[in-house]
Design a protein that fits this description.
- By secondary structure, the chain is α+β, with helices and mostly antiparallel strands.
- It has one domain (2-148): Sufe protein. Chain: A (Alpha-Beta Complex), CATH 3.90.1010.10.
- 48% of the residues lie in helices and 18% in strands.
- It has a 3-stranded antiparallel beta sheet, covered by helices on one side.
- The longest helix has 26 residues, at 123-148.
- It is globular, with a radius of gyration of 14 Å.
- The mean pLDDT is 95.
- Bound molecules: zinc ion (ZN).
- GO terms for molecular function: iron ion binding; iron-sulfur cluster binding.
- Residues 8-128 form the NIF system FeS cluster assembly NifU N-terminal domain.
- InterPro entries: NIF_FeS_clus_asmbl_NifU_N.
């Protein structure tokens, strides 16, 4: 079992038990399905845009607490942001996950996602934490290209 700060453990468990935006909508601009075979995590994620603004991030999934809570936290964080802001937040989270435990994360940028900082010490779990974020990136690129085509 991973040793995470108790407060952070609570944030992760809270999002796992009460996932945010975990209800797929039928009118997404793009929807993707991503899997993490090494752990068995799955996420289906939809995005709705209005111009460059993220109107909705909605999803469904199964898997470990890290993958599901990370997707929940991300959806909360990115809804209402611009795609540019979302890219900055996603890059910050990716850097945190690649930090091998050397960073705490910038809470002003990442908010609740800093709770996942400890995951960066466990290489096998980083893909769990990144699953939803990669799905968002994929879906938002597809949604954007549909709108501009
Ligand atoms: Zn997992």
């Amino acid at each position: 079992m991973m040793q995470l700060d108790n407060l952070y453990q609570e944030v992760i468990l809270d999002h796992y038990k009460n996932p945010q935006n975990k209800k797929l909508e039928s009118d997404n601009d793009a929807q993707v399905h991503h899997i993490n075979p090494s752990c068995g995590d799955e996420v289906t994620l939809g995005v709705k845009l209005e111009g460059e603004k993220i109107l909705s991030v909605n999803w469904d999934g199964v898997g470990c607490s890290i993958s599901q809570s990370s997707t929940s936290i991300m959806s909360d964080l990115l809804i209402g942001k611009s795609l540019e802001e979302a890219a900055v937040i996603s890059e910050s989270f990716l850097q945190l996950m690649q930090s091998k435990g050397s960073q705490d994360g910038d809470e002003t940028v990442l908010e609740d996602a800093v709770a996942l900082a400890g995951v960066s010490k466990y290489p096998a779990r980083i893909k769990c934490a990144l699953l939803g974020w990669m799905a968002f990136k994929d879906a938002s690129v597809q949604a954007l290209s549909k709108k501009t085509n």
